[in-house]
Amino acid sequence: MRVGAELRNLLTSVDNMVLLFPPSAHKEIEIAHKVLSKDMGELVSCMKNAHNFSNTSLDNVYRKQMLSAAHVLALDAKNLLDVVDSVRMRFPSLRMNSITLNEAEEAPPPPAPESSRGMKSTSCV
């Protein structure tokens, strides 16, 4: 699954980058990281349900939940990048490894419409 691999790469890049930040900035990055990781698990669960119920009358319900979980995950990835960028802006004196920086900014997800920014995760149980 390419999305999962890209998200793991993003999390790895952030993990490497956070070492360059002062300890005072670690907590907010850690929180955004945990939210993204949790919602990645939620998407996997939704995908399994969508696959398991694909030949039933519940197919559309589980597909909608999967798409909703994917949307939330995209928002979480954008939020993580925004948090990292915010920390970088607050600490401009930090010299960062350009390779690590480029990996983290390589392929950010597209921005979500304003109306969906407050959207909460849906459960796929």
Automatic annotation (TrEMBL):
Give the matching InterPro entries: Focal_adhe_kin_target_dom_sf (IPR036137), Focal_adhesion_kin_target_dom (IPR005189)
Q: What processes in GO biological process is this protein linked to?
A: signal complex assembly
> In the UniProt record, does the keyword Endoplasmic reticulum occur?
no
Read off the Pfam families from this record: Focal_AT
Taken from the UniProt entry, a GO cellular component term is: focal adhesion
Segments of this protein annotated with the region Disordered: 99-125
The UniProt keywords, alphabetically, are: Kinase, Transferase
Q: Which GO terms describe its molecular function?
A: protein tyrosine kinase activity
Q: Which residues form the Focal AT domain?
A: 2-90
Name the domain of life this protein comes from.
Eukaryota
| This protein's name | Focal adhesion kinase 1
